[in-house]
Amino acid sequence: MKRLIVVSFLLLFSLLSLQSFASEDHSDMHDVMAHLLTPASEKIWNASGFIITEEGELSLAPTNQEEWNEVIFGAKVIMESTFILNRPDRSQGRSDWIRFSELLEQIGKKAFEAAENKDPEELFEVGADLYQACVACHNVYMKK
Fold first, then answer.
1. Which range of residues forms the domain containing residue 69?
2. What is the reported pTM?
3. Is the pLDDT of residue 127 over 80?
4. How many domains does the chain have?
């Protein structure tokens, strides 16, 4: 419980500090991705699937509560990122942008549930959904 309170505090602090970004400057989107969404996504992806070696399969699934808590943290950050991405200065009323960010909230909830249930198969599926959502949005909005 103490860990959940600390994680909640850190998440709240992160969200509040992001609110101070300049509302007309969208260059901070890189920072949101690099320092918030990418690390949160990696918490899910790094805990999903298998590595196959000559010695056999190595599961990447969490093996203890601390590792599952890392996935839970990543899932909660992804869920809450919807509020950051849907700020009016970012969404600018673009319906596809809003749909992409709301999709992250849904995926984050599924990842949270998979981690709460300690379900590595579901977490793997959610990780694939997360990847597809990221690619779909980046295909539209990422500067090349």
1. 26-141
2. 0.78
3. yes
4. 1
Q: Could you tell me the CATH number of the domain that includes residue 78?
A: 1.20.120
Give the pLDDT band of residue 143 (cuts 50, 70, 90). confident
The Cα–Cα gap between 32 and 18 comes to 8
Q: Which amino acid is at 105?
A: E
Q: Is residue 79 part of a domain?
A: yes
Q: What is the pLDDT of residues 89-116, one digit of tens each?
A: 999 999 999 999 999 999 999 999 999 9
